[in-house]
Amino acid sequence: MTESVLINLSNAILFLPVLGFVVTLLLGKKIKSIYLFEVFILTIVLLASIVLAFGKLSYFPDDKITAEFEWFRLTDTFAIKLGFLIDNITVLMLFVVALISGLVHYFSIAYMKGDERYNRYFAYLGLFTFSMNGIVLTHSIIMMYMFWELVGLSSYLLIGFWFEKKSAADAGKKAFLVNRIGDTGMLIGILILYLTYHTFSFDQIFASISAGVLPFNSDFWLSVTGVLLFMGAIGKSAQFPLHVWLPDAMEGPTPVSALIHAATMVAAGVYLTIRIFGLLTADAMMFIAIIGMLSAFIPATIALTQNDIKKVLAYSTVSQLGYMVMALGVGAYKFAFFHLVTHAFFKACLFLGSGSVIHAMHHEQDIRNMGGLRKKMPLTYATFLISSLAVSGIPLTSGFLSKDGILASTFAFGSLTGYWIFAVVGLLVAMLTAFYMFRLVVITFHGEPRDHHKFEHAHESPFVMTMPLTVLAILSIFIFYTPNPVSAEQGWFLTKWIDSPEVHTPNSTRFDFMQSNIVEQASLSGHGEIMYSEQYTEAMHSAHYPAMFLSLFFAVLGILTAFTFYQWKKVNVDKLVASVKPLYNFSLNKWFFDEFYQKTFVAGLFGLSKIMYWFDSKIVDGIVNGSATVTHALSIFMGGFDKYVVDGLVNFMAYLSGFFGLLFRRVQTGKVQTYIVLVIFSIIIFFFFL
Amino acid sequence: MEVGLNHFLVVSTLLFSMGIYAIVTRKNAILVLMGIELILNSANINFIAFSRFGNFGLQGHLIALFVIVLAAAEAAIALAIVLNIYKTLSTVNIDEIDNLKD
Fold it and tell me: Which residue of A has its CA nearest to B24?
């Protein structure tokens, strides 16, 4: 196993899906079973990513492997280089993407059966896998931006896959446009970076920051750059002000929701933040933490009242992404990535499980029409239950480990800086999450069937659908990450697989606990600086158990509440809802975000357009028409001048010539004697005057 | 009364004027030709007179002789032209010969 093998494997992982995409798209209409080629390609990609992860983690656990080549050169100093940066996070993320993508391919074989654009669907999946792998593998911010837009495109194509439905087409458009807002900020951030460092490569940018070069020579602009880059993550990861597109994106096919809008693409924002973590200042991190906190809390409250099975999961996704972002904001770099991985598995499992239910119920998505499905679909139920436990943070699951880590980090952050708000909101969201997840489980799978006709026809899904569910549910168990079911601190995932983050910002701009006072470790690592101080490690250590017990307490409280409300029916839910009607409506209508945006930004845009239209039609057109009128009048004047003055002069000359001609022709008598008389008189006059 | 240069010049001028008059007023082409002869001869008188009174030697006589020869040649050619005109237009009346107008 050498480095070049790893690089070649990465190339294969990146470009094989393109082959699948092109072949499937081109031959899709001719060969009905060409989708199998795409599935086969993804199987190979999955195997390759396993080999790559294994090779990287066992042979080069501490190395950063980079490879780059020059794509094109515009001037002597400006050249765009493409390349790979393969570290442990890269290979883990690649494995997650390849695995979930592969499982979603299998799942889709049965789920999408009978669709008229069956092959095209698989082609789009291939395109998406390619773009996502590009984001993960890249070594430079500009290449990431390119693939960033490509995942945006494939997401748009897949959300609007059933574009005959107006709502699906609109949702695709909305996702695309909302993402643009974030991407604009990201692009500005990239341009600032290039302006300052004349390179796009992460490593070189970080090296320059370590050397003390800052954008516009100010700490403030470094923070601004970090926030601008993070704006890309706000859009792509559906964070607080721009989260509105993700629930609408559920119009796409359910496996797509599992792959793109739960596990991988929306996590790209978190991945981006992880990649740029080294240049985030304390101010930028504070901003990120607040955005993450709001994104964790607001969607969690919305999810409480939603009745569409996929909408609940969508809001849950936004909320969990908010968790990850908040974790990055409070400096819990490792736990953010840990949660990204565990969340990818259990949320993909939940979405595919909901896909299985929707498939069985013949495209019924409203949970009020479900119920009692436990008996009909035991395997789906079991996997759904395991992943629900994971997302709620119950011990023995992976979700417990990562969530607990994040909560412990917020506790440590609170004790070190005094901002306890993140810990409080984190616990609250943990309870809300447990409640709405088990509300979903109970209403969907427990109790009596509410729609007997559909219930009679419901059936367990075929093997290609249950197999991915099983795999993902198994991966939601703690044992894959750490041997200790209550703490991941000493597990191989956190100690061996993930590198400690390096921070390159000037000391004065960091949080106090991120000052690097461990000199030996810094020199050992060879590049950058290890970020955590002893103080932080101690705070984490002491925060671990309180956080664990509190989070467990709140999670169990949430689950019990859900069971009390919906399983044992000890409390009359309708009455409770009636007593807090305004709050309930506020949540049911998603905090009126869509209406608010409609009234402000969309209406504002329309108003602006109208003003522009008015300006265009009155002022601009007025100027144009006015100048046309002036020109017209001038032309008429010129025409008159031409006709009467110029032509008149010409005609007058002609007339004059004619007149003199008539006058002098009298002299031309043809009689020699007249001529002679004239000659003689002329001579006499001539002599006389001389 | 001594006959001097002025007397010759007066005679010559009279002859010249009569020649011009003939050319301008006569309708017959042959009479016009005769007018031309008168003009030529008035010129001859001038030459001889200036030669005699002006101390030019024999140059005046010589040119006068030359003019007489020239007049004979001119009369021959002009009469031939008049004959041809008569053949073509059946007239020698100058007022009717205005083909030059066209």
Answer: A673
Closest to A342 in 3D by CA, of A495, A478, A236 = A478
Residue A68, H or E segment: strand A65-73
Question: A463-497: string of b/e by CB count within 10 Å (b at 16+)?
Answer: ebbbebbbbbbebbbbeebbeebbbbbebebbeeb
The residue behind tokens 């001594």 is B2
Asked if A670 has any chain B CB less than 8 Å from its own CB, the reply is yes
Q: Would the CA dihedral through A182, A188, A193, A198 be positive or negative?
A: positive
Contacts of B97 in chain A (CB under 8 A): 671-672
| Range name among A220-229, A484-493, A645-654, B76-85 with the lowest pLDDT average | A484-493
Give chain B's largest Cα–Cα span: 56
- DSSP 8-state symbol, A501: P
CA distance A235 to A186: 10
B32 contacts in chain A (CB < 8 Å): 673
Q: How many CB atoms are closer than 10 A to CB B24?
A: 15
Residue labelled with tokens 């040119």: B63
Dump pLDDT digits (tens) for A260-311.
888 888 899 999 999 998 888 888 999 999 999 999 999 999 998 888 999 9
Nearest CA in chain A to B98: A670
ipTM of this complex prediction, to 2 decimal places: 0.78
Q: How far, in whole angstroms, is CA A120 from its chain's centroid?
A: 22
CB pair distance less than 8 Å for A670 and B99: yes
Assigned token pair, B57: 């030697």
Q: Among all residues of chain B, which has the CA nearest to that of A669?
A: B101
Q: How big is the A-B interface in CB pairs under 8 Å?
A: 27
For the full predicted model, state whether its pTM sits above 0.80.
Answer: no
Q: Which of A126, A236, A255, A121 is nearest to A175 (CA)?
A: A236
Query: Min CA distance, A658 vs chain B (Å)?
Result: 18
The three-class DSSP label of residue A307 is coil
How many Å separate Cα A603 from the centre of its chain?
Answer: 25
- Please tell me which of the candidates A669, A671, A680 has its beta carbon nearest to residue B20: A680
H or E element, residue A71: strand A65-73
Structure tokens at A136: 């993960």
The answer for residues whose C-beta is within 8 angstroms of residue B65's C-beta and 6 or more apart is: none
Determine which of B16, B17, B20, B24 to mutate to test the interface with A (most A C-beta atoms within 10 Å).
Answer: B24
A611 contact B CB<8A: no
Query: Which residue from A668, A672, A677 is facing B94, i.e. has the nearest CB?
Result: A672
Instruction: Say how far apart CA A72 and CA A82 lie, in whole Å.
Output: 9
Is A236:A272 a contact under the CB 8 Å cutoff?
A: yes
Tokens for A230, please give them. Answer: 């993070």
